[in-house]
Amino acid sequence: MARRHQKTSLPRLLLGGLLPCCLGPAFTAAAQQSLPDDSLSHLLGVDRLSDDSDWTRHFSIGGMAALNIHAKFGMSGNFGISGHNAANGNYDDGYVLTDSTGNAGGQTGYWGYNSDSQYNATTGNLTMHSASSFTGQESANVNDPIDAGFQLSYGDTEFTWNRAKVGWEFGFGVLPISITDHTPIAVNATQTAYVYNTGGILMPGAGYAGGYSGFGEPTIPVAYTNGPTTTESGLLTGTRTLNTLLYTVRLGPWLYWDLNDAMALSLGVGPAIGIARNSLDYNETLTYSGGTAINSGSVHSTAFVYGGYANATLIFHAPEKADLFIGGQYMPLSDVNVSGGGRHARLDLGGQIYVTAGINWSF
User: I want to staple 144 with a disulfide (CB 3.0 to 4.6 A). Which of 37, 61, 69, 307 is the partner?
Assistant: First the structure.
């Protein structure tokens, strides 16, 4: 196959700038000098682009497993609770809602409560509780065992040297990352009491849960009085998860060497950049003396990351130039930060290592 004409391109410019540092002055000298005749080319072991060769370009696609990624989670301050809504009659330890009669006569049969401690048989008062906020502080480091993604790459040869090919390679990768923090956190919950007078009914036992119909069930007045607002110690459990979709591109010089008829080795090094789309999702349960409250939400961000890469790939030759490969890549990138409302997560990409495998076509 005839070689293409010499060209001026971004890959060639990049190759000319990085090649002296990355692949050695010998390759640079061979690429830049003009060889006067075939004997000198043969003496130096260099075949110029104008010569025929089996292939110059390559394309590969495959999967990758990311290792050595971890995140730091933190929170500090006063946090609202998104779960129960006391204004609508939903409490952390019960409910008082509108039944099918529309609460005829100011009474409802659509109510329930959880604990014996909520009912005072002497006064006939039933007390509901609702936590409106909590304060807490956390700092936790979480290691991510492994994440799976995919990558593809395309490259071209600029010159050959004996059994070696030297050129450039462009790569693109997509990696979904998910890291979850399960750390329980001691907190202080601010709760408000809501007092209902049951009107002297025969009180069902704790755990009672009345239905919507309101017929044949004990009813209580829907009017309540506000009780005290207090601070109670509690425990926040659940998960805080950092989800990141990382897109990376890389471009740098590339060296290929045929070890024998069955195997080859390729090396690459250069700069890398990327875009990280992130969400910090929390799904928590607050347990305190007044009951259990559910808290959930999400914080989003998009970040630009930058760094570099170095890779080594072992290629196993197969028929029709559809080769198999396995390799490793070190790609340190800048950190990713997600924060909002007193919550924070930092994704550390400074030491990530990829194990890659797939199919390579040369043409």
Answer: 69
